[in-house]
Amino acid sequence: MKATELFQKYPLAGNTWDEMYDKENVRLHYQNVYESLSRIPPDELGKKEELAKSLFMSQGITFTVYSSGEGIEKIFPFDIIPRIITASEWDFIDRGIKQRLHALNLFLKDVYHQQFILKDGIVPLDLIYSCPHYLREMQGVNVPHDIYVHIAGIDLIRDHDGTFYVLEDNLRTPSGVSYMIENREITKRIFPDLIPQNNVRPVTQYPNILYKNLVALSPGQVSAPNVVLLTPGIYNSAYFEHTTLARLMGIELVEGRDLVVENQKVFMKTTAGLQQVDVIYRRVDDEYLDPLVFNPESVLGVSGILSAYRKGNVAIVNAIGNGVADDKATYVYVPDMIRYYLNEEPLLKNVPTYQLSRADERDHVLKNITNMVVKKTNGSGGYGMLMGHSASDKEINEYQLEILKDPRQFIAQPVISLSNAPCYVNGKAQPRRIDLRPFALCGPNGIEIVPGGLTRVALKEGSLVVNSSQGGGSKDTWVLAQ
Amino acid sequence: MLSRVADSLYWMSRYMERTDSMMRMLKINYASSQDNPSEFSWRPVLKIFFNLDEEEISKLDDNSRKVLQYMVLDRENPNSVYNMVTLARENARGVQDNITVELWKCLNEFYHIVRGDRLTYALQHGDPITVLDTLIKECTLYFGVTDVTMFRGEGLCFMRVGKYMERAIQSAEILDVKLSDQSYDLDRPTDATYWKYLLMSISGYSLYLKRYQSGFEARNIIDQVLFNVDFPRSVLYSLNQLHRYFERLRSDRNIEGFSKVQFNIGKLRSKVQYSDVQTVSNIGLHHYLNEITRDIDDIGSTLNQYYFAYS
């Protein structure tokens, strides 16, 4: 096949998996898109990129950055070339995530009840009790249907040979699902007919599945449960996502100040007095949820909500205290959990991870720090990371001091290269690193994963960090039907 | 409906009504400033919409472009179009799940226009009427989209309640400022263009010609702006609409609040309904118009207390 202008001189990186190219050849599942895009004149693609931007802007798919009292609307950078996943790759991901999530839910129930896994010595006791997200307040609390993780955003990456690895389990309030939905809508606008031509599986059913699961959790004997979405408010960077989900599910979007707890029941303040709330899909972190129990300074939460939850008068999604299972030090034990609870071999691999609380592993990491990524066990958003291969000596020295102060707070992983995918940069297709966050929904009838997800892109050339807070963008993510 | 949501819809609607009314006012006054520079003054407009002291007014008075800049784009001016559209959009942003996507898009796009460099440039160098027409069109679009897409429910009722309260206040205030220019003397001979521009600025000119047929006479103007129920910007028309939409909020679950607000609305509506130009001028026009705006403010606080209070 003759390379056209767009894909001409596409620099293939050595020792890195490229989603589109197998050496010099375009992979089968990318060929249709490759040909379609090659037919579009380059300046026309630039216009399409502009159109995508203006669509995001006019629909308010933005987050607001406040500087000197004035809000400035920003869009989350979007790359117009879709990321494509084959049916068989997806089948594997689907099974792998279901298996992992199943085990993680069992783990959370176990940790907050009998703690067999700790007693059997599979997961060390001190690891759990030293985890800041292990909440004693949740010990012995029964949650509806024993489901703790209703919504998971497990991050996957691909190593140089294309093997999928789990990078992180996001089990608290994972975000980004609105971009899975909206990116698809944008692709429909900028590339008419491209989606039907490629037999791409739809993602629009996500809100319906989530709503069905939320209703099923209602604790009361009510025919029409009152389900709400609790947001920290318009200043939150994911506020657009909260409004989108509330709108698509037809549920009320509430803030902490809209709710009040009386007699261990949660009510919302309406124009016709108080109305009881049965299920809360919260996007407020544990720490801010109840100022009476957790952070007393919090104005985002609701006083007394934990007492209503413990009493079983309200369902909260995701459950409180899930952080103990997606702590980066607990992550190390997830394959063991799968073997312990399910008696199965894990399908999805973990990235090899060193716990810096262990002296031998710590010594190894400190000796080889230039080949390591060191992370905080409770960090997120790409903050507080040390990328050993690109850090200066000074940064490394300072970071080492931090580690030695409290080694439990750190883990290290060898640098995984992450796969490349072609991105439209300055009129040319350029390889950029990507990851994948599929969204899994867990309800009383099992786990469903909408075929798609959020592909995040490290838009800076050579960067391995895809987090939006670190200059990352996203792509529409296609799962092919066959 | 959440109290916070009702509150936001109500204010979103009030800000948009005020924006619309202000821009029509600006457009006609600008036209008038080009027509008759010796007689023209921005003073009444500046008085209606802004609490400026005399010194600030005299600084602006003779410079139409400066006045427009100040009223459309000035960020320091809390009543500028820029700030009101921002506030309306901020209110809408917090209740996106309670308005239609179309309505949200419409306000969001308006917001981006108001903040865009193109508008700043056009207002400095272009034709102000064209600029104002573009903005008025955005407002009209907002009203149309509301009408065509918004679900008929509590939310729309609160929007309409806010809108007609704001409109009644605007009409009463515009009339008051214009009459104060004439020292409330209804027999004082006035240049016809004075009243003509007043009527045009509240889109009441054609109706006036058809209805009153006489030349411009202060008593007829007052009659139209206060009592004419066919004139969509008259105080009585606005109060009738306010009454109509508030009645739809009747509910067994908030009987106390409902009857308090209903009482206030009914009382004010009767007061206006059973007055005419003669009785009003006997009472004193300034006093009467002031009472109307005060009564509407009272309705606002009662609504706030019984429907919107949430924190």
Keywords:
heterodimer; A: 482 residues; alpha+beta; five-stranded mixed sheet; four-stranded parallel sheet; 26 strands; 24% strand; B: 311 residues; mainly alpha
Task: Summarize the main sheet of chain A.
Answer: 5 strands, mixed
Q: How many helical stretches of chain B?
A: 16
The beta-strand count of chain A equals 26
Overall SS class of chain A:
alpha+beta
Strand content of chain B: under 5%
Most residues in contact: chain pair? A-B, 25 and 29 residues
Low-confidence stretches of chain A: none
How do the strands line up in the largest sheet of chain A? 5-26-25-22-21
In round numbers, the mean pLDDT of chain B is 91
Query: Order of helices and strands of chain B, N to C?
Result: HHHHHHHHHHHHHHHH
Helical amount of chain B: over 70%
Radius of gyration of chain B: 20 Å
**Backbone shape of chain B:** globular
Strand segment count of chain B: 0
Task: Give the distance, in angstroms, between the N- and C-terminal Cα atoms of chain B.
Answer: 15 Å
Anisotropy-based shape of chain A: globular
**Average pLDDT score of chain A:** 92
Helix residue percentage of chain A? 25-40%
Helix tally of chain A equals 15
Topology of helices and strands:
The complex is a heterodimer of chains A (482) and B (311).
Chain A: E1 21-22, E2 25-26, H1 31-39, H2 42-58, E3 63-67, E4 70-74, E5 78-85, H3 87-111, H4 116-119, H5 125-129, E6 151-153, E7 155-158, E8 164-168, H6 177-190, H7 194-198, H8 206-216, E9 227-231, H9 239-249, E10 252-255, E11 259-262, E12 265-270, E13 273-276, E14 279-282, H10 286-289, H11 305-310, E15 315-317, H12 323-326, H13 334-342, E16 349-350, E17 354-355, H14 359-367, E18 372-376, E19 386-387, H15 393-405, E20 410-414, E21 419-425, E22 428-434, E23 439-443, E24 446-449, E25 455-458, E26 472-479
Parallel strand pairs in A: 5-26, 8-16, 9-10, 9-14, 14-15
Antiparallel strand pairs in A: 1-2, 3-4, 6-23, 7-8, 11-12, 12-13, 17-20, 18-19, 18-20, 21-22, 22-25, 23-24, 25-26
Helix pairs in contact in A: 2-6, 3-13
Chain B: H1 3-35, H2 43-49, H3 54-61, H4 64-72, H5 81-93, H6 101-115, H7 117-125, H8 128-149, H9 154-181, H10 192-201, H11 205-212, H12 218-227, H13 235-247, H14 255-273, H15 277-283, H16 285-308
Helix pairs in contact in B: 1-4, 1-5, 1-8, 1-9, 1-10, 2-9, 5-6, 6-8, 9-13, 9-16, 13-14, 14-16
